[in-house]
TrEMBL record:
InterPro entries: ClpP/crotonase-like_dom_sf (IPR029045), Enoyl-CoA_hyd/isom_CS (IPR018376), Enoyl-CoA_hydra/iso (IPR001753), Enoyl-CoA_hydra_C (IPR014748). The keyword Transit peptide applies. It comes from Sus scrofa (Pig). Belongs to the enoyl-CoA hydratase/isomerase family. It is found in: Mitochondrion. The lineage of its organism: Eukaryota, Metazoa, Chordata, Craniata, Vertebrata. This is AU RNA binding methylglutaconyl-CoA hydratase. SUPFAM superfamilies: ClpP/crotonase (SSF52096). Pfam families: ECH_1. PROSITE patterns: ENOYL_COA_HYDRATASE.
Length: 338
């Protein structure tokens, strides 16, 4: 691609620009990544938080690996699952008294958690869920908002938008498990995830126009990309709330489940999906996510160039060689993310 700079005229300028764009996108994989010809391997960032999680005694298989040390007063519980679920991390919102609304403190905790997760190579998939029955996230904390001076509102929304963008830019697959109400910023949080699953009884919508404001956490941009511009405008203009079946029909979510007695049908489905991702090559998953996300924002020719550059990143990896060897030996590959 570097040779494109030598092509005369406007075409050469365009190709050179595309080459720079692709290089910038590949740099987005993280520090230590290089374009083809200068592979240095993935960086191994130190885990910022100590694990210390222990499997819960007893219970159904889907609960294995849950910490018995999580404090009930924590507004955000970060759980590193173990055993057959090793590599899956659950971000559980736990503000029952405030319907999981997004306060200054919760936004700060989410930012801290995401900052830790994005540099942890052992993390393979992240599930965002609620630990409060019947609620995913009711949006911004309006009781806190009403006490804010008008000069505080803008900076708070900027911080909320930033943390939602950080979630969208996580290098591993993210799944939102919507087992209850997801309104305003709560739905924007879910929209930032790669995949959304919901119970049929869940309710979701961008309802900000009811308060004479607009979605400020990415909703005006991510909802049209998920369901199309015309329908997104209709939902935002009307502040309409959809149930799980309606959300599935318009493409807002990927899967809809009948709610169970425990109230965690969406979470269980999210866990099943996450388990499907675990056996695959970790580097390949990260690069595939990058190629898809960045390719969707550009024209097809540039998108194909991004795919080509991203594909080249997988060729020199030990995982690729392990995959070929495992195929030859008719065994399950043992990927290490290298």
């Amino acid at each position: 691609m570097a040779a494109a700079a030598g092509v005369p005229g406007a075409l050469g300028t365009l190709r050179a620009g595309r080459a720079r764009l692709v290089a910038a996108y590949c740099a987005g994989i993280g520090p230590g990544w290089r374009l083809p010809g200068s592979w240095t391997g993935l960086p191994v960032g130190p885990a910022i938080w100590a694990r210390g999680w222990t499997p819960a005694a007893g219970g159904a298989a889907w609960r294995r690996g849950y910490s018995s040390e999580a404090k009930t007063e924590d507004e955000l519980r970060v759980r590193y699952l173990e055993e057959e679920n090793r590599g899956i991390v659950v971000l559980g919102i736990n503000r029952a008294y405030a319907k999981n609304s997004l306060s200054k403190n919760l936004v700060k905790m989410l930012s801290k958690a995401v900052d830790a997760l994005k540099s942890d190579k052992k993390v393979r998939t992240i599930i965002v869920r609620s630990e409060v029955p019947g609620i995913f996230c009711a949006g911004a904390d309006l009781k806190e908002r009403v006490k804010m001076h008008s000069s505080e509102v803008g900076p708070f929304v900027s911080k909320l938008r930033a943390v939602i963008n950080e979630i969208a830019n996580l290098p591993v697959p993210t799944i939102a498990a919507i087992d209850g109400l997801a309104l305003g910023g709560g739905l924007e949080l879910a929209l930032a995830c790669d995949i959304r699953v919901a119970a049929s009884s869940a309710k979701m919508g961008l309802v900000e126009t009811k308060l004479a404001i607009i979605p400020g956490g990415g909703g005006t941009q991510r909802l049209p990309r998920a369901i199309g511009m015309s329908l997104a405008k209709e939902l935002i203009f009307s502040a309409r709330v959809l149930d799980g079946q309606e959300a599935k029909a318009v493409g807002l979510i990927s899967h809809v489940l009948e709610q169970n007695q425990e109230g965690d049908a969406a979470y269980r489905k999210a866990l099943d999906l996450a388990r499907e991702f675990l056996p695959q090559g970790p580097v390949a998953i990260r690069v595939a996510k990058l190629a898809i996300n960045q390719g969707m924002e550009v024209d097809l020719v540039t998108g194909l160039a991004i795919e080509e550059a991203c594909y080249a990143q997988t060729v020199p990896t030990k995982d690729r060689l392990e995959g070929l060897l495992a195929f030859k030996e008719k065994r399950t590959p043992r990927y290490k993310g290298e």
